Amino acid sequence: MPAKSKAQQKAAGAALAAKRGDIKKSELKGASKGMEKSMSEGELKEMASTKRKGKPEHKSKSE
């Protein structure tokens, strides 16, 4: 599933880095911590690789 906002894409990228061992899991905060636990590496890669153009900084609460 593609990211719906820039913030979601960044969180997925951080979670992917932790899952791959590039950064420590203890360094994760907020949404990226949950994403790392609940999503596969493939799902995180797909979300993190979403194009940023046209994405809002944060997803609105109504979506």
Describe this structure in words.
By secondary structure, the chain is an all-alpha fold. It has helices spanning 6-20, 30-38, 41-48.
Pick out its properties.
single chain; 63 residues; mainly alpha; 51% helix; globular
SSE inventory with pairings:
Layout: H1 6-20, H2 30-38, H3 41-48
Helix pairs in contact: 1-2, 1-3
Q: How many angstroms separate the termini?
A: 15 Å
Task: Categorize the overall geometry.
Answer: globular
> What would you call the structural class?
mainly alpha
Number of strands: 0
Sheet of most strands: none
Radius of gyration: 11 Å
What is the share of helical residues?
40-55%
Number of helices: 3
Approximate strand percentage: under 5%
* SSE topology string: HHH
Task: Compute the average pLDDT.
Answer: 89
Low-pLDDT parts are: none
